Amino acid sequence: MPADLDDLFTALGRQADTLPLAGAERARERGRQRRTRNRAALAGLAVLLVLTGAGLAVTRDRHAEPILPATTPARVRGLAPVGEPPRLAEGRMWNNARISGNRVIGFSTIEGGGHETVAVDASTGATLWRLSSSDSYFRGVAATAEAVILLRELNVASGEIDAPQDRILYFHDPATGTERWKLAYTDDDRLVLHEETLVRLINTTGVTEAYDLASGRRLWSAPGGADRPVLMSGMATEADGREFGSGNDALFDPSTERAYPYSDNRLVQLTGKGRVVIRDIRTGKVRSRIQSRVSSAAAALASPRWEGVMEITAYEGTVYLTETIENGFQLGTPTQVFPPSQGTWSWTHFVPCERERVCVLEQQGEREARLVMIDAATGTVLRTTGAVPGSGVASMRDGRIMMSFGGNGGTALYDPNGQAMYSDNGFGGFLDDGNVLTLTQDAGDRKYTARGVSTIDYKKSKLGVLPEVSGRCDWDETVLTCPAGRELRIWRFTR
User: Fold this and answer.
1) So what's the pLDDT on residue 407?
2) For position 151, what pLDDT does the model report?
3) What is the domain partition of the chain in residue ranges?
4) According to the model, what pLDDT value does residue 65 have?
5) What is d(CA 411, CA 460) in angstroms, rounded to the nearest whole number?
6) Model-level pTM?
7) Could you count the other beta carbons within 10 Å of the beta carbon of residue 156?
8) What is the pLDDT of residue 279?
9) Given a cut of 50, is residue 399 above it in pLDDT?
10) 5-494 — its CATH code?
11) pLDDT confidence bin for 14, thresholds 50/70/90
């Protein structure tokens, strides 16, 4: 059934595509590599297209588009539709769209129970395979290049709010749709999705188990012990796309979250007594241990349910611990707690913005905000700049930060000096090192205007107008896909 518009905005706002900070030469090299890969796919596409076809609503402004200079990476200038969109029967709608390699995965719930899932070739629009089930209740789909993952909840109507919810993850082959394996667990367990491995931390026992993502074969298991792990994270790197600040991940709520599998082999765990343990994610071997000095770690983790109490984030070798406090949150590393905000200011969001540096969004009320960069090694504040108020998710590329707040919060794009260079009232995220995508409802109806914003000169260009969006969109550097009511829409970016 169609979601309430405010809920839809909230779900749509939790989107970003992130590759953290790197040097300028590295960015130029990545740009050269990407241009080489993309030339074949983009050859023959018009720079600016008016999208037409049955039910297709992509339009152009009547005013002449500005002539924008060429950039590296190439500037995104338009959208081109891919094939005929798969359509559902009257009264049904697509709920999610995901990208798995060169495939788009569409997901639709069926009233009364069950789901329909379809895989579409992202270059031609041809349907590759289709799955359906009458079993209830399937919450959504997560997708990586190596797996299509369906989440089923078993005791939704139990009425016991605090009771752990039984779940099953079904892992399918992206090429054929064939079910490879499945995993039963509860929503009190912790999961980490690696590009080759799935790790589960069992809440009731503290046991950690790792499985091969393709086959489901158990790779290793580690007992909980006297000081058992309670929180777990992968290690994000410059090579990973990742969003920070959603509070969930794609395996907890695939209806709103995008899957960002880790590529680094380090698994980071925090024990009940505040000890940080780093393991090899493929073998389970302990690489290092360090006792956390976060003063309230043990007390905060004494609760049998860890939801909302504390989180662990790891980026390029630095581990960050966050604890919810009355006025926002407290942030630190295993060896220190950063000086908190002062007076009526409160920390509302943070994102690792360089190796051993973290950027914190600090707000005073609803109208004032500033961005604070902190040296993670010393806790020293390096700079403070004005910011756009809001709370959502953040992504990073080459020193630039993109905030996507969702709802009525809008977006904010910051340059490497922490200055806000662009903002609007939509949601969005990075496409590549040189382009940001934003989607806004300019006309006050259910259509969305797509814009490309350059991270080089911060000039915007209207790409087109999308029809009604009925769930979470997904994108990468070549493709945008959205559930649009009964139709699953796919576009390729033109440059």
Assistant:
1) 59
2) 96
3) 5-494
4) 62
5) 13
6) 0.82
7) 12
8) 98
9) yes
10) 2.130.10
11) very low
Q: What are phi and psi of 214, to 5 degrees?
A: -80, -40
Burial tier of 483 (Cβ tally within 10 Å: 0-12, 13-18, 19+): buried
CB atoms within 10 A of CB 180: 16
Residue with tokens 């030339």: 39
pLDDT tier, 177 (very low <50, low <70, confident <90, very high otherwise): very high
- As given in the structure block, the two tokens for residue 191 are 């999961």
Most confidently modeled of 131-135, 210-214, 339-343, 415-419? 210-214
Most trustworthy range by pLDDT among 202-216, 280-294, 348-362: 202-216
Mean per-residue pLDDT, 434-451: 90
HEC readout, the chain: CCCCHHHHHHHHHCCCCCCCCCCHHHHHHHHHHHHHHHHHHHCCCCCCCCCCCCCCCCCCCCCCCCCCCCCCCCCCCEEEECCCCCECCCCCCCCEEEEECCEEEEEEECCCCCEEEEEEECCCCCEEEEEEECCCCEEEEEECCCCEEEEEECCCCCCCCCCCCEEEEEEECCCCCCEEEEEEEECCCEEEEECCEEEEECCCCCCEEEEECCCCCEEEEECCCCCCEEEEEECECCCCCCCECCCCCCCCCCCCCCCCCECCCEEEEEECCCEEEEEECCCCCEEEEEECCCCCHHHHCCCCCCCCCEEEEEECCEEEEEEEECCEEEEEECCEECCCCCCCCEEEEEEEEECCEEEEEEEECCCEEEEEEEECCCCCEEEEEECCCCCCEEEEECCEEEEECCCCCCEEEECCCCCEEEEECCEEEEEECCEEEEEECCCCCCCEEEEEEECCCCCEEEEEEECCCCCECEECCCEEEEEECCEEEEEEEEC
Structure token pair of residue 287? 């690489």
Cβ contact 71:456 at 8 Å: yes
Closest CA to 211 of 152, 258, 175, 169: 169
| Amino acid at the residue 151 | L
Copy the structure tokens of residue 52. 């037409």
